[in-house]
């Protein structure tokens, strides 16, 4: 394990869009920086469904007013991967990929950050850790079976299979539609609420409703999957009745949450509420640990459906402004 003698002004954990934005702002403010990412650049977006079309328009995803030019009206996964890759190269950001942060300790005004490859020192740390690695579990029998996944990439793998999709958000609805068109033998859709989430993309909603009406997708609302078996799943309805249907695969698109274990290791506290939001100053994004900041969707705790790239990117400017002010006072 190498040990660097450099002391960075800013060390960012996570090279997603918000982590990249923090690096851009640090570079513009002449603060030395390093971004450490456990996977590839924009790793979470890379893992998104292959054919995903984002709800946001391209201009809302831009960094530093650098135009995000696309051929369609909405950016695709591929568009976004290419844009942030170009931003990283344009600003010559200092990014270490496929390196996992383990310990972060603070002593004598410095943070000591140990990864699986090196040790670093920094005056400030920014946690832009996202949420995609930690799905919200169903906590039901059979959830650990190999046929269950909390992630969906594309439909081809499920050709001629009976697939159940759990969850009423965009990810579940779009997965169900792709599975139907990709040749799944049967697509079942299970949602605990009486209707779809209000945030469903406007161009997706009527398509899904029409497929359900036509019987192409079998939908169970006001229902929960209570058990997953090797060849079936058990669905309990609000009425109290249960239905058991044949099943080969389950896609539990139930959402994701911040890495609370990692936050606890760093000393960052979370609110004593069901949302478990990390404690931080919304004006500066500084946590209860002096000199440690949090940015992006990780600020939402369990509630990650209100922070997106377009409103999370402003965190970078708040953080770097605060760091620059402190650095200037200390000089």
Overall description:
There is one protein chain. The chain is α/β, with parallel strands linked by helices and 331 residues long. It has two domains: 2-134 and 256-330, FAD/NAD(P)-binding domain, CATH 3.50.50.60; 148-252, FAD/NAD(P)-binding domain (3-Layer(bba) Sandwich), CATH 3.50.50.60. Helices cover 24% and strands 24% of the residues. The strands form four sheets. It has a five-stranded parallel sheet, with helices on one face. The protein has a five-stranded parallel sheet with strand order 9-16-10-11-12. It is elongated, with a radius of gyration of 22 Å. The model has no long low-confidence stretch (mean pLDDT 94).
CATH superfamily of the largest domain: FAD/NAD(P)-binding domain
Mean pLDDT over all positions: 94
Largest sheet: spatial strand order = 4-3-2-8-17
First and last CA, distance: 33 Å
What's the helix count? 8
Q: What would the keywords be for this entry?
A:
331 residues; alpha/beta; FAD/NAD(P)-binding domain; 2 domains; 5-stranded parallel beta sheet; 8 helices; 17 strands; 24% helix
SSE layout:
Layout: E1 2-8, E2 10-13, H1 17-28, E3 33-36, H2 43-46, H3 77-90, E4 95-96, E5 101-107, E6 110-115, E7 118-122, E8 125-127, E9 148-149, E10 162-166, H4 170-181, E11 186-190, H5 205-214, E12 217-220, E13 223-228, E14 232-237, E15 242-246, E16 249-252, H6 260-266, E17 292-294, H7 309-312, H8 314-330
Parallel strand pairs: 1-7, 2-3, 2-8, 3-4, 8-17, 9-16, 10-11, 10-16, 11-12
Antiparallel strand pairs: 5-6, 6-7, 13-14, 14-15
Helix pairs in contact: 1-8, 4-5
């Amino acid at each position: 394990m190498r040990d660097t003698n450099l002391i960075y002004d800013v060390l960012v954990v996570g090279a997603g869009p918000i982590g990249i934005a923090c690096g851009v702002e640090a570079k513009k403010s002449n603060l030395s920086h390093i971004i450490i990412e456990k996977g590839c650049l924009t790793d979470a977006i890379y893992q998104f469904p292959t054919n995903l079309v984002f709800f946001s328009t391209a201009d809302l995803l831009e960094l530093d007013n650098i135009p995000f030019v696309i051929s369609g009206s909405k950016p695709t996964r591929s568009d976004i991967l290419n844009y942030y890759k170009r931003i990283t190269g344009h600003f010559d950001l200092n990014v270490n990929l496929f390196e996992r942060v383990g310990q972060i300790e603070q002593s004598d005004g410095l943070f000591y950050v140990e990864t699986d490859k090196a040790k670093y020192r920094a005056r400030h740390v920014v946690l832009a850790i996202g949420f995609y690695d930690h799905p919200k579990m169903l906590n039901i029998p059979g959830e650990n079976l190999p046929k269950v996944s909390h992630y969906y990439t594309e439909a081809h793998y499920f050709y001629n299979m009976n697939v159940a999709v759990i969850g009423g958000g965009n990810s579940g609805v779009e997965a169900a539609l792709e599975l139907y068109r990709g040749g799944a033998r049967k697509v079942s859709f299970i949602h605990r609420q009486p209707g779809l989430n209000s945030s469903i993309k406007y161009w997706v909603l009527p398509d899904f409703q029409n497929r359900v009406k036509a019987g192409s997708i079998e939908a169970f609302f006001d229902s929960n999957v209570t058990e997953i078996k090797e060849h079936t799943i058990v669905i309990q309805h609000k009425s109290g009745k249960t239905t058991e249907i044949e099943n080969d695969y389950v896609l539990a698109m139930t959402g994701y949450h911040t890495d609370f274990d990692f936050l606890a290791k760093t000393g960052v506290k979370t609110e004593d509420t069901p949302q478990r939001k990390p404690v931080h100053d919304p004006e500066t994004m500084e946590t209860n640990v002096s000199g440690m900041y949090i940015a992006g969707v990780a600020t939402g705790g369990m509630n990650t459906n209100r922070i997106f790239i377009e409103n999370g990117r402003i965190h970078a400017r708040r953080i770097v402004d605060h760091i620059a002010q402190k650095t200037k006072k200390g000089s």
